[in-house]
Write a structure and sequence with these properties.
This is 4-phosphoerythronate dehydrogenase. By secondary structure, the protein is α/β, with parallel strands linked by helices. The chain has 2 domains: 120 residues, 3-Layer(aba) Sandwich (Rossmann fold), CATH 3.40.50; 195 residues, 3-Layer(aba) Sandwich (Rossmann fold), CATH 3.40.50. It is built from 15 helices and 12 strands. The strands form 2 sheets. The protein has a 7-stranded parallel β-sheet, sandwiched between helices. The longest helix has 19 residues. The relative contact order is 0.14.
C-alpha cells in the first residue's frame, strides 16, 4: 500500500481536466503526494473524512470561509488557481497559519486580448450587425451598413485604464499598437517606470474625464468595491464605452444602466457580474438584456467570466498552480497573499 507524505485536494474539475493534465500535476507533486479530485459546488460539500486529511487546497472558483477552514485541521496552504482572491477569507486563513497564494501571469495575454476583442466588437458594431443579420426575415433588406456613434478609428480615441498591472499593462500595449492614446490610473504602479507611451493620471476621476473607452483591471478590495458609480460615469465623454474584465462589484450596474439609457455611455461589455455565485435576483441592466430589450442589447455585450479561458492559459494554470503549491508546502513565499494586500 502506498505511503503518502501529503494530500492535495482539487475540489473542482478544471474545464480541460484529462488524464494527461492530471498526470502532469501528479508528476509535479511527486509520487509521495495523494491527489484527491472532486467536483463540488461549495466547499461545505466536501466530506469530513477527506477534509481531515488535506494539506494543500487548490481553489478554482469556490468561496473559502472561516467555517470552511475549520474543517481542515491539517491544511497548510491554499492556492487560488487564478489571480483574484476576493472569494477567500485571507484573514481567517492567516489566523490559522494557512498560507494563501495565487497564480498571476498564467493568462495575461488571454485576458488582455479578450478585453481588446470586446472593445473592437463595440467600436465596429460587430455584435449588432451579427444579431440583425441573424434575425432578419429578409437578408437582402438587412444587408446594409449604417453609421453609429460608436464607429471611430482607435487613433481618434483615448483609452483609459483603471489598474495597470500585468493585464492592464498588456491591454495598454496592444491598444497603443492599434494607435489608441492611452491614459491610466494605478496607485500601486509607477507607470512611467514600467511602460512607455502611457500617460499616468492621479485619480480614477481624471481618467474618466478623458476616456472614450474606460476599461477596468483592478482586484476587488474595500477601496475598489463600487469605485465606478454614477459620479464617475457622468464624467465620461459623450458616447463612451465601458469594459469590465476585472470583478463585477467594481462598477455599479444600476448606474451603468442609467448611463447607457441617458446616452452618456454608448456601449458596455462585461465579462464579470456582481455576486456570480448567486446571480438571482438579476440587476435591472441584466434583466433588460435577458428580456431582449433592443435598446440595451444593441449596447451591451456579456461574456460568462470567460476572459481567462484559452488552451494555453489552462495549461499554464495546471502547471503554475501545482508548482506554487509545491513551493508553499516547502515554506517558500511564491506569490504569497497577505491579509489586506488584495
Amino acid at each position: 500500500m502506498a505511503s503518502f507524505q501529503r494530500t492535495i485536494l482539487y475540489p473542482q474539475l478544471m474545464p480541460d481536466d484529462t488524464e494527461a493534465t492530471q498526470s502532469i500535476e501528479q508528476k509535479l507533486f511527486g509520487d509521495d503526494t495523494h491527489i484527491i479530485r472532486l467536483d463540488v459546488e461549495r466547499l461545505s460539500d466536501v466530506p469530513d473524512e477527506i477534509c481531515k486529511t488535506v494539506h494543500g487546497l487548490m481553489v478554482l472558483h469556490l468561496q473559502v470561509t472561516d467555517a470552511d477552514l475549520e474543517r481542515f485541521p491539517l491544511l497548510r496552504a491554499i492556492v487560488r488557481m487564478g489571480v483574484g482572491t476576493d472569494d477567500l477569507d485571507i484573514a481567517a486563513a492567516a489566523k490559522r497559519n494557512i498560507a494563501v497564494h495565487n497564480v498571476p501571469g498564467y493568462g495575461t495575454d488571454t485576458v488582455a486580448t479578450h478585453t481588446i476583442g470586446l472593445i473592437l466588437t463595440l467600436l465596429r458594431d460587430i455584435h449588432a450587425y451579427h444579431d440583425r443579420l441573424r434575425k432578419a426575415p429578409n437578408l437582402q433588406e438587412a444587408w446594409i451598413a449604417e453609421p453609429s456613434v460608436r464607429s471611430h478609428d482607435p487613433s481618434a480615441l483615448t483609452l483609459g485604464l483603471i489598474g495597470c498591472g500585468r493585464i492592464g499593462g498588456r491591454v495598454a500595449e496592444i491598444a497603443m499598437a492599434l494607435k489608441f492614446h492611452v491614459v491610466a490610473f494605478d496607485p500601486f504602479v509607477d507607470i512611467d517606470q514600467f511602460y512607455d507611451g502611457i500617460t499616468q493620471l492621479g485619480t480614477a476621476e481624471e481618467v474618466c474625464k478623458v476616456a472614450n473607452v474606460l476599461t477596468l483591471h483592478t482586484p476587488l478590495t474595500d477601496e475598489t468595491d463600487g469605485m465606478i458609480g454614477a459620479h464617475q460615469l457622468r464624467l465620461l465623454p459623450d458616447n463612451a464605452l465601458v469594459i469590465n474584465t476585472s470583478r463585477g462589484e467594481v462598477i455599479h450596474l444600476d448606474a451603468l444602466d442609467a448611463a447607457i439609457r441617458s446616452g452618456r455611455v454608448a456601449g458596455a461589455a462585461l465579462d464579470v457580474l456582481p455576486n456570480e455565485h448567486a446571480l438571482n435576483p438579476l440587476p435591472k441592466l441584466i434583466e433588460a438584456y435577458r428580456a431582449g430589450d433592443e435598446f440595451i442589447c444593441d449596447r451591451l455585450i456579456l461574456t460568462p467570466h470567460s476572459a481567462f479561458l484559452s488552451k494555453q492559459s489552462l495549461e499554464n494554470i495546471h502547471i503554475m498552480s501545482a508548482e506554487t503549491m509545491c513551493d508553499a508546502l516547502a515554506g517558500k513565499r511564491t506569490n504569497l497573499i497577505k491579509p489586506g494586500k488584495f
